[in-house]
Amino acid sequence: MQARVVIIDDRPTNLRIYAQFVKMMGTGFETHCFSNPVHALDFLETERADLLIVDYRMPEMSGAEFIRKVRLMPAGGDIPAIIITAHQDRECRIAALDAGATDFLQSPVSQPEFKERSLKLLEQRARKREIAQRATDLGRHAHAVKTGTPGDEAAKSMLEQIIDTIPIMINALDKDGKCLFLNAYQAAMFNRQPNQLVGRDMYSLCPRKFGERERRRDAIVLESGEPLPHYEERLSNDGVELIFHCNKNPLLNREGETMGVLTTAVDITARKFAEEHRTHLALHDMLTGLPNRALLQERLGQAIDEAEDKPGCAALLLLDLDRFKIINDTRGHQTGDILLREVAERLNAIIQPEEIAARIGGDEFALVLRGMTGPDEISRRCAGLLRDINRPYEINGVEQVVGASIGIALIPGDGDDADELLRLADLAMYDAKGRGRNGYCFFSPELNQVAQANARTEIELREAIAAGQFELEFQPVVEIADRNPVGMEALIRWNHPTRGRLLPKDFLPVASDSGLMDLIGNWVIEAACRQIVHLRDRGLFVPRIAINISPRQFLTQDVVHEILSRIERFGVDPAYLCIEITEEVLLERNGEIISALKALRKAGINISIDDFGTGYSSLQYLRDLPATRLKIDRAFVMRITESSADRAIISTIAHLAHALQMKVVAEGVETQEQFDLLRAAGCDEIQGWLTGKPMASSDIERMLAGSTNHLQSRP
Fold first, then answer.
1. Can you say how many angstroms the Cα of residue 464 is from the centroid of all Cα atoms in its chain?
2. Which residues contact 399 (CB under 8 A, 6 or more apart)?
3. SS3 for 590?
């Protein structure tokens, strides 16, 4: 194949890569590269191009603007144009389609895909030009034979010339399907002279199924005497598929009787591609190519209708990837995108032809399984699905592993409305996450009751923030050597108007899921600062006050600013404040969080790692953290009297913390025996019911008034 490819991209690296891709397509390809689209337009005013490769985002003009200008050129109307876009550029692709783009490639472009798309468009263009040229040659040859004056077009009527050479197939058949007339353009499709086909049975010359369709359509026109307008046909010519818009009309004699059928067919391949691509954009996810939420709901509706009429059942699976966020944040969004595409490929390989896999946002996918015999078969499918997703992914030479949590809603058992089924499957998916992740759960009515209760709690929480229904209680932390208070943990309570006094476990999970944690967390910071000021103004010993900061607060707000601004506003010594975090916080954007913690520690605020020993952090994180205290989780404390292993773990944690210049706090201490063993293990401080239950502010004041630390001013 001989072809000239013009490449336009403002980045020199891309120009070199795309030019190399063209070279790898084979011999006979000529490339012209331009970093400035204006220069490329000047070139195209006088030079031929067989294919355009155009980057969408360029400083001088967009790819859509460039294509629009090319289409206005005399020879630019039919040059195929591939636009290079990023995966999220849905609107850009629509703009490029409107301007006349032919196809798209997603950046970064792969060489196999570049070759496949380019060769397909070049072959299609070459075939169309060949047919058009053959039609022109056939028309001239037929006229030369007729007149005996080769090349003398003046003797041929203008109408005959137009009919023979316009890129429209025209034929007239009699009642038996024999050709009465066809123009040179249609004859060129058969690679014959028009006069060689006159009198032939046209149905037998066509592919069998196409010929049968044409015979049925012609019979309708002949029988009714009415036109058959506006239908489409796909024709393959030498392996190149072309799409035509067709019309049939009755062919009448002088008496007005139907003597045959006149058929016209216009090539709409380029327009049809644009329409199909626009539809695809509206119904598919651009990153993975999977159906999107809109198409999912359409197919879900079909599954609901089918389940009512056929035996068995269908199922909606909502699938959320486990650990994806960690990979996306630590390895970068490009790695995350590659991972999502590979997951999509595995899902596509698993589903049956009548089923659908869709991406409905972020790392969330949905599948509709059809023709299931019951929950057992669905369970087997889910188990297989998890096995496939769990297989390692090789991305840029690094192996990545993810899991998935799957929620299942049965059709029609759990509902017959698409939106409701999505909601129920979502509840089941969160139940699967709550049970340890990388598993699946069926929806149950109990989950729906919990969801409804959580929705009510969210509304009431918003009212509680505005109405000031929260208050803090404080649980003492005492020195293990003399049991004197050295600190206290601030614990939020909600004085609910109808449900009474609620503990954090009753409402903080809802606050976290609904986005209210930031507001509540800021209230706790401010309330703790007010308590410090209150104790200081009363002349009492001020122990450090520990407040819990959730992982969500680190991810959704500037925690450093929120804390330091309140310390400054209330005039609080930072040493009186301690931030408690769990190991879980290190799983999310750990680099940013460690930087935030270092900023707080630099300001003088204490940092405590809560529930230590049950999370996922590594010793490397522990080494890098600017922590001042480790709080041993109560699970170890509860077993210390029965388990030598737990005693050894606590002793080891204590030695490790002391080596890193941290103090060790044991929480959940309830008995004197636990206290004695913890002291022997090397713990520095104790928190628990043995030394003090959570107290109201007034009770804390009375306790501190009698403390031997009364005159101390620093924790």
1. 35
2. 392, 393
3. helix
Among 112-121, 123-132, 174-183, which is the least confidently predicted range? 123-132
Going by C-alpha positions, the residue among 39, 91, 94, 93 that lies closest to residue 69 is 39
> What pLDDT was estimated at residue 306?
86
Q: Convert the pLDDT of each residue in 56-104 to its tens digit.
A: 989 889 999 999 999 999 888 889 999 998 756 677 888 888 888 888 8
Per the CB < 8 A criterion, the answer to whether 355 and 368 are in contact is: yes
Strands, E, within 45-185: which ranges? 51-55, 81-85, 103-106, 168-174, 179-182
Is the peptide bond between 229 and the residue preceding it cis, with omega within 30 degrees of 0? no
Backbone torsions φ then ψ of 137, nearest 5 degrees: -65, -40
The alpha carbon of 385 is separated from its chain's Cα centroid by a whole number of angstroms, namely 19
Determine the 3-state secondary structure of 267 from DSSP.
Answer: strand
**209: part of which helix (H) or strand (E)?**
helix 208-224
Token pair for 549 = 């900061």
**What are the structure tokens assigned to 75, written together?**
């020879």
| Dihedral Cα 494, 497, 499, 500, nearest 10 deg | 60
The answer for residues whose C-beta is within 8 angstroms of residue 9's C-beta and 6 or more apart is 15, 18, 33, 35, 53, 54, 55, 58, 84
How many of the other CB atoms lie within 10 Å of CB of 201? 14
Quote the tokens at residue 583: 């190991």
Angstrom distances, CA of residue 210 to CA of 206, 217, 260: 6, 11, 19
Does a cis peptide bond (omega within 30 degrees of 0) precede residue 108?
yes
Q: Pick the more confident residue, 127 or 466.
A: 466
**Separation of alpha carbons 123 and 110, rounded Å:** 20
Kind and range of the H or E element at 476?
A: strand 470-479
| CA dist., res. 76 & res. 68, Å (int) | 10
Nearest alpha-carbon partner for 339 in 324, 355, 361 = 324
Dihedral, 443, 446, 447, 450 alpha carbons, nearest 10: 170
Residue-level pLDDT at 212? 92
Contacts 24+ apart (CB under 8 A), 239-244: 239/123, 240/123, 240/124, 240/127, 241/269, 242/124, 242/127, 242/128, 242/267, 242/269, 243/267, 243/268, 243/269, 243/272, 244/169, 244/268
**What are the distances in angstroms from CA 165 to CA 79, 186, 269, 568?**
20, 10, 19, 85
140 and 122 Cβ atoms separated by less than 8 Å? no
Helices (H) and strands (E) in the chain, counts: 27, 26
Average pLDDT (152-165) is: 62
Q: Are 237 and 123 in contact (CB under 8 A)?
A: no
What are the DSSP calls for 611-652, one per residue?
EETSS---HHHHHHS--SEEEE-HHHHHTTTT-HHHHHHHHH
Q: Please give the structure tokens belonging to residue 300.
A: 């879900």
Angle at 638 (CA atoms; ends 633, 644), nearest 5 degrees: 100
- Cα distance between residue 451 and residue 258, in whole Å: 70
Q: Is the pLDDT score of 396 beyond 60?
A: yes
Coil, helix or strand for 254?
Answer: coil
Residue 641 half-sphere exposure toward CB, CA atoms < 13 A: 9
> Is residue 489 helix, strand or coil?
strand
pLDDT at 148 over 50: no
Rg (the chain; Cα; Å): 37
Phi/psi at 74 (nearest 5 deg)? -55, -40
Tens-digit pLDDT profile for residues 568-601: 999 999 999 999 988 776 655 567 788 889 999 9
- Residue 522: is its pLDDT beyond 70? yes
Note if the pTM is more than 0.70.
Answer: no
Predicted pLDDT at 85: 85
The alpha-helical segments, DSSP class H, found in 225-374 are 269-283, 293-309, 324-331, 333-350
